[in-house]
């Protein structure tokens, strides 16, 4: 079944553009719940991804000290003018969030949708700027959310899970049915919350190098961990020593190993 992305929007379904995957959230209860998931916004600066026709934007404008709406669609961006928020007609992946926050002297609360076809790039982008983000409440296709919040050892655990969880505590909040949107998508959508708490210092690993290490060991999920590391160029002797030192079974797959054990292996192999 073809999966469709979801974007937040107003309750007016007219002129939705199917080619952009515009399925507008029309449930007032869901709109309230999503905004409330960010917590107290009275002193907060909120960055909204993909505001659409502004249903959430208007709720945010009434609650937050500052709202920055990033909307790629020029017509929709123009429709947000005049409701008391800053509108950036940009691709969120092209917005330097660290520079934006530092120039304004703010930290960001993020809210928005993650269209299924660019979910991973957007999550990676938010994680790369986690230093200026407190939390993010995000809606995405249910299957993608399941991967983000998955625990080691589960079928859904993978690179997306590990990368996100190195940057944030993740929570699955609630799932919305297709009839919460107009037009209804062909999939369920799940709202998750990320509380940014990077673990690199705690696990004593350098961020860029460890993320590259994770990419190596998840390259072929069905291969054993030792085979993926051997393919990455590590010698048999170094691998044997590292697995013994970290008490990890070399025949397990990467999806079964905790981040703490991954970090142990990483440290042992770079010593």
Summarize the structure.
The chain is built from 11 helices and 9 strands. It has helices at residues 28-36, 55-63, 74-79, 97-104, 119-128, 142-149, 159-167, 207-217, 225-231, 236-246, 259-270, and strands spanning 24-25, 45-49, 66-70, 86-88, 108-114, 133-141, 168-176, 181-182, 189-196.
Write the layout of secondary structure elements.
Elements: E1 24-25, H1 28-36, E2 45-49, H2 55-63, E3 66-70, H3 74-79, E4 86-88, H4 97-104, E5 108-114, H5 119-128, E6 133-141, H6 142-149, H7 159-167, E7 168-176, E8 181-182, E9 189-196, H8 207-217, H9 225-231, H10 236-246, H11 259-270
Parallel strand pairs: 2-3, 2-5, 3-4, 5-6
Antiparallel strand pairs: 1-8, 6-9, 7-9
Helix pairs in contact: 1-2, 5-7, 10-11
Name of the CATH class of the largest domain:
Alpha Beta
Low-confidence stretches: 1-20
CATH homologous superfamily identity of the largest domain = Vaccinia Virus protein VP39
> Alpha-carbon distance between the termini?
48 Å
Strand order of the largest sheet: 4-3-2-5-6-9-7
Q: Residue-averaged pLDDT, rounded?
A: 91
Order of helices and strands: EHEHEHEHEHEHHEEEHHHH
Estimated share of beta-strand residues:
15-25%
Radius of gyration: 20 Å
Strand element count: 9
Largest sheet data: 7 strands, mixed
Return the CATH topology of the largest domain: Rossmann fold
Number of helices: 11
The global form is elongated
- Helix-residue proportion: 25-40%
The CATH architecture of the largest domain would be 3-Layer(aba) Sandwich
Class of secondary structure makeup: alpha/beta
| Structural domain tally | 2
